[in-house]
């Protein structure tokens, strides 16, 4: 028995050379494809010093792009938060016709290119689109305006919250909600006092990912924005314009904002994963006297 156990452990134990090679390859990949580009962004952004860096960020068109990015994220993230919680609760806690269809619809933004998504909005709301004449008659602008950017951002960030919560809720089961219902709790009380405490860290994880994608989206927003400087340019589009104008230092200065966002997102994501794992592995609390 001991010999068999020793043979199994030996079969799954790599030599020092193999471990070193794997570790070296992993660190090399991490350094070349992650750390080096990140270092290059900040190095180029600060190439002319802090004064030029702050001046590039405070430039009116750049500041307008920052505000528009915050507006798009500030609208799309709460809306997707509400939809994601409602859809995941319905899918995980109830049985109904069309459940698999709803799951498929949630996954559509993952399978459709963002550029194609932008073209779809142009086809629907553009001047020659399905509702173009009606919108023009009522002096409503969606494409090449802020509403189009918000719609495109909502579309590409649509699945993040729901896709994070659905497997979590399914793993938790329905027993606690059913017990709360039997004890007389209504739907809102059941969600607020039973469901929400169990999904709070997963919910925050989905919101963090959704916000990061909303601020960094390029493809769909590029199609519907029209690249109107100072009006419909988000941060990624402003970076593209500055780079195409050979204003490299300013372009990297603005790009460093997205890099900082990525680092903050990574830190928040790591913390939430740690809290989620610690709560999952924590022993159940003992209530009442021993």
Low-pLDDT segments: 283-290
* Total count of helical runs of at least 4 residues: 14
Strand content: under 5%
Gyration radius from CA atoms, angstroms: 24 Å
Order of helices and strands: HHHHHHHHHHHHHH
- Category by helix and strand content: mainly alpha
Cα end-to-end separation: 42 Å
Helix content: over 70%
- Number of beta-strand segments: 0
InterPro entries: CysW_permease, MetI-like, MetI-like_sf, Sulph_transpt2
Keywords: Cell inner membrane, Cell membrane, Membrane, Sulfate transport, Transmembrane, Transmembrane helix, Transport
GO molecular function: ABC-type sulfate transporter activity
Organism: Polynucleobacter asymbioticus
Main features:
single chain, about 290 residues, mainly alpha, 14 helices, about 80% helix, disordered C terminus
């Amino acid at each position: 028995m001991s010999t068999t156990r020793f043979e199994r452990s030996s079969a799954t134990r790599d030599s020092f050379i193999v471990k070193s090679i794997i570790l070296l390859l992993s660190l090399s990949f991490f350094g070349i494809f992650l750390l080096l580009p990140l270092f290059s962004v900040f190095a180029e952004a600060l190439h002319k010093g802090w004064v030029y860096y702050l001046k590039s960020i405070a430039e009116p068109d750049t500041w307008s792009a920052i505000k528009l990015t915050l507006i798009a994220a500030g609208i799309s993230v709460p809306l997707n938060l509400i939809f994601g919680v409602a859809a995941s609760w319905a899918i995980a806690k109830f049985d109904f016709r069309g459940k698999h269809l709803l799951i498929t619809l949630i996954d559509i933004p993952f399978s459709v290119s963002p550029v194609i998504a932008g073209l779809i909005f142009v086809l629907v709301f553009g001047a020659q689109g399905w509702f173009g004449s009606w919108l023009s008659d009522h002096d409503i602008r969606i494409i090449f305006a802020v509403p189009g950017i918000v719609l495109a951002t909502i579309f590409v960030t649509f699945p993040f919250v729901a896709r994070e919560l659905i497997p979590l809720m399914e793993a938790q089961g329905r027993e606690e909600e059913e017990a709360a219902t039997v004890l007389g709790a209504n739907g809102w009380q059941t969600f607020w006092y039973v469901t929400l405490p169990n999904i709070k860290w997963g919910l925050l994880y989905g919101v963090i990912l959704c916000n990061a994608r909303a601020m960094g989206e390029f493809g769909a927003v590029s199609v519907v924005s029209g690249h109107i400087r100072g009006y419909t340019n988000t941060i990624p589009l402003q970076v593209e314009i500055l780079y195409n104008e050979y204003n490299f230092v300013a372009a990297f200065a603005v790009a460093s904002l997205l890099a900082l966002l990525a680092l903050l997102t990574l830190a928040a994501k790591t913390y939430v994963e740690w809290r989620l794992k610690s709560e999952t592995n924590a022993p159940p609390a003992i209530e009442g006297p021993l």
